[in-house]
Specification:
It is built from ten helices and 23 strands. Helices cover about 20% and strands about 25% of the residues. The structure holds manganese (II) ion.
Length: about 525
Amino acid sequence: MSDPSSRLEAYRAKRDFSLTAEPAGSEAPTSSRRFVVQRHRARRLHYDLRLEMDGVLVSWAVPKGPTLDPRARQLAVHVEDHPVEYFDFEGVIPKGQYGGGDVVVWDWGTWAPARTDDPRRAVERGELHFDLHGQKLAGRFVLVRRDEGGSGKEQWLLLHKDDDHARPGWDPEEHPASVKTGRTNEEVAAEPEAMWRNDLPAAEAAVVVARPHVPSWDPPTEDELDALEAMGTAGSWSIQGHEVRLTNLDKVLFPAREAGRPVTKRDLIRYHAVIAPRMLPYLADRPVNLHRYPDGVDRPGFWHKEVPGHAPEWLQRWRNDEADPGETECYAVVDRVAALVWMANFAAIELHPWTSALADVHQPTWALIDIDPGPRTSFDDVLVLARLYRTALEHLGVAAMPKVTGQRGVQIWVPIAGGYRFDETRTWVEKVSRAVGRTAPDLVSWQWHKDQREGLARLDYTQNAINKTLVAPFSARPAPGAPVSVPITWDELDDPDLRPDRWTVHSVVERVQACGDPLVGLVGRQQRLPEL
Ligand code: MN
């Protein structure tokens, strides 16, 4: 009964180790008492509390998560022991496998049994008192068996004693990040190769698959931001080794939204500098089309593609050798923080990067799905359509992420491998979109002309073409308050507070600091599109 290998049989029986990345368990038992809590988004979100005992991890699945709140009585389902190699597992479990989903190491540390020298026996008797010394969890916990459960899964209760570590109202969901990497489940899910663990045997299970190289950029320093604040209405700003001439800094570009304040050019410049490390992965290696509003967004804007003669010398340019007479020849490439700053000063409010990169502008690196609402389309309708795409893409096994546009719509970005042509991505997106449209025919029109669409939404696949673009993630939109286009997780489609223009240049920075960017893990992903 105390042989770890026999206790692991239930664990092994549920998993096919030729398919799952989880370790299979072969390490010798140890006497240390470590604990781990993994936040696990499987079919349902839950937290797995695991206490190391006699060479295995004795485990409970806690749907609402362990808490420091002494008033809480959390359901804890006693599940099969896990091998100790699982202790620091963070990554994904393939869909279709037992526990398929993503896992982060939500807390870890050591534990000590209380009121017993034989914790294994205490578990068998159905009541274990123990102290945790973790990074989030601390103090005295009690696990009590409530009933045997009909299905063989014992229902227990987990509670925290009202000791010095107790925190009334403490909510684990307000502390979602991994203690191992600082990443959220969403970020781990977006980069599943990052922590991929291979199949048998467990001792060799840790495999790190090379990720596409995405360069990184430093944010501006506090001193640099202070210098921007201290500047008069114009001046030269020294930012990361470049001098950028700034003008009309206190000009209002965006009127206020509701109780907010107007957004000046200085505000937009600061925003571009601060958001640059998040935005540049989508801009750095491709031409960009600019939508400019030099007189503010209350006045009509215009497209601007040609780099003007007064642009700084260090601004990267791409020359289109195939340009016909009268077409744009020289495009900007936004590849550094100072370039984004210059764009803001140029009142280039919307940045629309090409979906193809400089290496070959005839090969898309993203396939784009644009849910374009008509006058009669509500945001709820948009969400219905976005969820249909979610279902379709999940069914196809295609990795993609939605983003709100900052106006009324939702787009879905699909990373694709090199070698595709635009007519291929366009046809593929059209086929998926036609299937989605057939499921919701009362919401969608396929009429080309706007006035024949009867106010319905358009599932626009035609942007999958050279020099056709959608707005960049984190780019501002021309509306009061400066709303921003923001990548979101699929789960956020079900957030009742979601709005397509929920975040502005003032509020989005806090969001990405808390939640990261669920789309960035897909940058450079070499994904083949399945045949339809
Ligand atoms: Mn689990």
